Amino acid sequence: MTQEVEVHLFTDGGCSGNPGPGGWAFLLRHPKTDKKLESSGSEPETTNNRMELQAVIEGLATLKRPTRVEIFTDSVYVGKGMTEWMPKWKANGWKRKEGGKLKPVKNEDLWRRLDEQIQRHQVKYTRVAGHSGHPENDRVDELAVAAYQKYL
């Protein structure tokens, strides 16, 4: 039996304008060894929510095998989406209820990709207050902003 590794995944995404040029970033940390991996990327025209989702997707996709992952993000959108909304959307064929009617889920392409990643791993969501002096959250914010600077 293979031993599961536990890692911490810190993520952030943001835009200059919403929509506008955007960046995402993640920092993976193995708590026992303190080994770290950072990555970031950008898009010329996107939204804050898309970049927040992209950061989590990219971080989880980096893991080579099923892993216990604690995700730290300041995005309530990502957190509520993973823990509350996604199960309902999936049950409704990736539709959300609005005014008594089923409507398409916004950012469905990214939610589906995130769902695929969540199925591979054991995921726990922890909310972090943004811009609150949390070192890893501040670091991924800095990386995400730096990622989209080339479009400004």
Which key features would you list for this structure?
152 residues, alpha/beta, Nucleotidyltransferase, domain 5, 5-stranded mixed beta sheet, two-stranded antiparallel ribbon, 4 helices, globular
Helix fraction, binned, reads 25-40%
| Beta-strand percentage range | 25-35%
Radius of gyration in whole Å, from Cα? 16 Å
User: Considering the protein shown, what is the CATH homologous superfamily?
Assistant: Ribonuclease H-like superfamily/Ribonuclease H
Q: Label the CATH architecture.
A: 2-Layer Sandwich
User: What sequence of helices (H) and strands (E) makes up the elements?
Assistant: EEEHEHEEHEH
CATH class: Alpha Beta
Mean pLDDT across residues: 93
Strand-helix topology:
Elements: E1 6-15, E2 20-30, E3 35-46, H1 48-62, E4 68-73, H2 76-91, E5 95-98, E6 101-104, H3 108-120, E7 122-127, H4 135-148
Parallel strand pairs: 1-4, 4-7
Antiparallel strand pairs: 1-2, 2-3, 5-6
Helix pairs in contact: 1-3
